[in-house]
Structure formats: C-alpha cells, structure tokens
Amino acid sequence: MKRPTVQDVAREAGVSPSTVSRALHTRGYASPEVRERVQAAANRIGYVLDHNARNLRSRTSTSIGVLISDLRNPFYADLAAGIEEELRAAEYQMVLVNDNGDPAEEMRAAETLLAMRVPGVIVTPVTAACPRILQDNGVHVVCADRELGRSGSDVVLSDNKAGARELTEHLIGLGHTRIGFLIDETKWSTGAGRLAGFRAAHADHGLEVDEQLIAYTSFDAVAAQETTRELLDSLDMTAIVAANNVLAQGALAEIKRRRWKIPRRISLAAYDDVPWMSLVAPALTTVDQHTVELGRNCARLLLARIRGELPARRRIVRVAPRLIVRGSTGPAA
Amino acid sequence: MKRPTVQDVAREAGVSPSTVSRALHTRGYASPEVRERVQAAANRIGYVLDHNARNLRSRTSTSIGVLISDLRNPFYADLAAGIEEELRAAEYQMVLVNDNGDPAEEMRAAETLLAMRVPGVIVTPVTAACPRILQDNGVHVVCADRELGRSGSDVVLSDNKAGARELTEHLIGLGHTRIGFLIDETKWSTGAGRLAGFRAAHADHGLEVDEQLIAYTSFDAVAAQETTRELLDSLDMTAIVAANNVLAQGALAEIKRRRWKIPRRISLAAYDDVPWMSLVAPALTTVDQHTVELGRNCARLLLARIRGELPARRRIVRVAPRLIVRGSTGPAA
DNA sequence: CTGTTAGCGCATTCAT
DNA sequence: ATGAATGCGCTAACAG
Question: Which B residues 240-279 touch A at CB under 8 Å?
C-alpha cells in the first residue's frame, strides 16, 4: 500500500517537491499557473498529505487533546461537542480521552498527548499535576469547567456562584427558608462556587443557613438518592437544590419513591440543565450552564493562545449561566 | 522548546540511539541491564517518544478515527464511550469527529483521517462513499449501527428486527391491535430493520398492519411531535412505538400536551433506551441496544482486523438487544 | 517565484 | 546483544 508523495506529484506536474509543498499546503510563493497545475496533478494521482511527516518536520500538529471525566454524562458530552465543533471549523482534530476522574488515567493520557506533540490540551482536571506536566513541556492548556489551585493556565468557567445564588434566590422568593443542598464535592471551584452562591443568597436575604441542610454525598446517582433519603428522614425542609445533573437524578428518584408531590410537598431544583429535566413531570427548574458554548469558548481560547494572539497573562473566561424556571418549584408549603 | 530525543538518551546512557529505541519502544534485543540503564536515563532527562516520527518511520499509527453523527445524542455518546474505553485499554487513541449527518462533512473527515494515516476508522456512515474511499486507501473500516448497501466492510449492528419484533409482540400480548409506528428513515438498515420487526410481529400473530399507522417523520423531536399530533388526530390507536430516542421525545411531548394518561389512554414504547426514559413517570418501556457494548465491539473488531487476526471475509457482529418493560405500556383500552 | 539541500526523530536493515 | 548507516515524507533555509 504505497501512497503517492510530494515527489510523485512533483514528477507528474513537472516541478520540484518544494514547489508542490508550497502550492498545496503552505501559503508560500507559487504562481497561480503552477498552483493549478500542481493541484491537478495531485488530484490525478490521488495524493494526500501525510500529517506525520508534516508534523515531524514543522514541529506543529493540528491535533488537540481533550481530557474529560465521563463522556456518558451529558455535561461532558456537550462540552466535547462544543469543543469539537469549534476545532473542526478551524481544521483541527480532537483526540478525546476519558479519564473517568482517575488521576492515574489522567496522567497516562497527558503522557500520550505529550508523545503526540499536540500544541494544546483542554482538560477538566482531576489533579493539578496534569495541567502542570503539560505546561512544563510547552503544551498550552485550557482548564474547562473547574480550577484546581493555582495552575496558571487559562480557564473557562461557568459562573457557579452567580448561578447558584440566582437559583436559591428564586426559592427564597417563593417563601422557602429551609432549603436542602445536595452536593458532592467542594474542593473544586465548581462545587465550591455553587455552595458559595447558595450561602450568598441566604445572606442577601438575612437568612441563616442551617449547616445540617447541606448534605454531602458522592458523584453517583445511587449515593445521591441514599443521601437524600437520610436528609429527608432527619430534617424538615420545603425545597432541595441538587448541585449537578447526576445528584438531581438521585434526589428525584427518592422524592418519587416517597410519592411526594412536587412542588406541593417539596420543591426541587438543579444546577446543570440536561434534556431529561424538561421531560419529567413536572419539569425541573434548573440552571443552564450553556455547556456547548462553554466548550466552544475553551476551543476558541486555546486556538488563540496557540496562534500567539493572546498576551502572556492567563485568561479567565466566565460564561454566565441562566435560570430556567419550570414546574418543579412552587410556593413553600 | 527543544525536547530530548533518543540521541540525548543515548548519550546519557552511554549507548547508541538504536539501542535506546530497542530498549524503550520496540521489543527487540536488549540486555536487561542495558534496558534498565536506558530507562533510567530517559526518566532522568524527561524523554518522551515522538509519535509523529515513529509513525512516519514505521508507517503505522495508534490513532483511530471515529466518525459519528451527533455527540449530543446519548446514543452516539455511549457508542463513542464504548469505543474509547476499548481503544484506551489497547493503547490506541480516539480521534473523534462529528459529521452532523452531513455527507460533505463526513467526506472532509475521511480525508483528514487519511492524511493522519490512521490504520482504521469506525463510522456510523452517512454515505457509502465514505467507507469506500477509506478502504480504497488501505484503511480498515468498521461500520457501526448501520449498513449502507454493500460496503464490504466489517459491521457491528444491533439486531433491530429482533428488538422491534419483541417490543411489538409485547404490545400485541397486551391486547393492542392498532399500534402506531413513528419512524424517521428506512433507507438504512437501522430503520428498515425496526420496521421489519414491527411487521414481523404482526404477521406472527396473524394481524394486518394498517399502513396508515406507520408515520414517517424526520430525525428531530419537534418534527416527531408534529407527526405524532397528525397521527393521533387522524386515526385511532391504543399504542405508539417510537423508532428511536429522539422520536420518543416528540411522541411523549405530544401525548403530554393532550394530557392523555399513559398507559391507560395510550401506551408508549421506544426503541433505544436512554437515561431519561426511566426518569419520566410512568417510565418508558424500551429496547436497550447495549450501546456501550456495541461501541466496545466495534473497537475490538477493528483492532483485531488491524492486527491481522481475522480472516479476509467481512465480519458481521450482531448485538442482541433487550426488552425492558416499564410502566408506559399496559393493557389495550 | 522556483529548485537544491538538509534534516525533523525514529526504527530498521545490516554488520559486528 | 549492540552500533552504524539509512531514509520514512515533508518543509525550512538558502540560493538563484
């Protein structure tokens, strides 16, 4: 299976290999006449560029690494979709790796991407070590959705605090004063921001937060259901906020199991709007993170960085979320 | 940003570049003692293999192209997740491209993958031209989920006919004789198979299919809702089968809009189980395609093909679907 | 504007 | 078991 090379095209067109290279790929000098002749010759013999050779020679690549935690979670799928869309438009390719939130897998992936000589990586980081090792090797990094300590890399975030604050405020406005908050982690900026927004809304309205109402669980629908069960067993509340789509699933399952009417008996709201939330009855009040747009922003930012269009200073892009009020939230009982 | 090369490692370890190559990457001869010394030297100076150089030299690549229609559809996301999982385990990378079901985008992607010299591609084909051009250039192709004419390539399919037949039979068993069937396309083996299964179940039970009950729509929830509306406006039926998850969304929306009780007034069932279907009330009776497993099979098959472990004859893998009975189907009114 | 020369980093001969 | 030499296909310098 020998494929034609620039040499072959050169012979066919009666020019030199470098002229072929210039005419076809590089925007170097080449007279329109020659350009056309070379193009024709290339088509005739079915020539197709070899990215490996080009990358090796010019030490650049148009492959971008994308490192996410769970492609089956619509949040990550949407994020990846937005990234891919933007990369494709710019003639870049997306190498997608699922690290399952596992630090070891994440590190393995980073090494692979290093080996591929990708110019940039977009990552929803599990460990600060991952962005660091990449940057230490000259790879541009954009952290998506969350921030771990001071990585120094560009970052694209949803304004979690503002979104959670608005959502909580909506409930307070409906008369709720005892609101449960279901959350998995607060080490990352994501969870921390949402919790901060929850607290801020209370403070804005002169309400104390009963710390018992903040229920810590793990990133798993079954665990979230169990935690919700314990929460509802032990305390009184008129509303629950779930900090993300997975936890919302668990909370909803538990409320349904009890056959509690939503929103009459209890209101339910979730951060991170995903499709099923508008299909259930009643549909859930949520905060839409504009996840696809978040992904697009990551890609745009990374590409600008790669092209050297940005000042050295790290950039922080915040995408404003939007409150979507639906039927699952109503006046406090 | 100059990264260390085999030369540098060789100097550091006091051996020749070829020995480094053998010790590190290739399983050629190298004494354990030297192997270790080279390994240590490599770690010390932070050496990392250059895939581009390796690929160029050995004309193989460990990147696999994956061409799908819509990453935001959980079906494709699950498929991709299954593929990625298997590829990662085998130390391959996934280059994921979304073609949006557009033949032009699909063809562009194929050319890119050709340029990347990937040894194989997994595609949910839009056009037969795509698998063809890839194969003509020596790239192994596995078609996922559907088959377009005679492509000659390996293919991994859900047994659509069997699944739809079982689903329809379930309804007939409940006493339904007038069942609507909502479908978008029947040119691909996917839709054709599901429709065939629907017919076969009727035939099995000596029932005529009223052709009017087969409602053709387009791959879009809004269109599906509109088609469902027309269908319910014009004909009597006691159940509806939606041929995929997107159409199910439209059908459900329309039934809810009418405030018809499910399953009392009408039963609803869907092909292609996705998460929201078990969250709505009542939960939907569906056919689970084992989509992730479908993806895994695609990757396994492709890798086996690449490694030359398979006989020349094209292979057709069928993954048996599974009927999941939930609350949305009940006795005919 | 075009051709010539050189070499990117690696894996593979072929010697030894 | 190891080393020297070669070239994968391409593009960046340089010269013309």
Answer: 249, 252-253, 256, 275-276, 279
What pLDDT was estimated at residue A34? 87
Domains parsed from chain A with CATH numbers: 6-49 (no CATH), 63-158+291-320 (3.40.50.2300), 160-289 (3.40.50.2300)
Q: Which residues of A touch B4 (CB under 8 A)?
A: none
Asked whether the beta carbons of residue A115 and residue B50 sit closer than 8 angstroms, the reply is: yes
Q: Alpha-carbon distance A124 to A146, whole Å?
A: 6
| Nearest residue to B153 via CA among B260, B258, B305 | B305
Residues pairing with A63 in the sheet: A93
pTM listed for this prediction: 0.94
Closest residue in chain A to residue B246, using alpha carbons only: A275
| The A179-183 sheet, strands edge to edge | A214-216, A179-183, A239-242, A267-271, A285-288, A322-324
| CA–CA gap between residue B94 and residue B328 (Å, rounded) | 38
**Distance to chain A for B46, nearest Cα, Å:** 9
Interchain contact B1–A (C-beta under 8 A): yes
The pLDDT of residue A2 is 83
Assess contact for A192 and A186: CB atoms under 8 A: yes
**Through-space separation of residue B31 CA and nucleotide D11 C1' in angstroms:** 38
- What's A4-50 look like in SS3? CCHHHHHHHHCCCHHHHHHHHCCCCCCCHHHHHHHHHHHHHHCCCCC
- Helices and strands (H, E) in chain A, number of each type: 12, 12
Chain A contact set for B101 (CB, 8 A): none
Answer yes or no: is B26 CB < 7 A from strand D: no
Q: Which of A31-35, A316-320, B103-107, B291-295 has the lowest average pLDDT?
A: A31-35
Asked if residue A168 has pLDDT above 80, the reply is: yes
| Nearest protein residue, CA measured to C1' of D12 | A58
Q: What is the structure's pLDDT at A28?
A: 66
pLDDT digits (tens, 9 = 90+) for A89-132: 999 999 999 999 999 999 999 999 999 999 999 999 999 999 99
Tokens for B42, please give them. 């490599």
Residue A222's CB: how many other CB atoms inside 10 A?
13
Q: What is the pLDDT of residue B28?
A: 66
The least confident of A7-16, A177-186, A322-331, B100-109 is A7-16
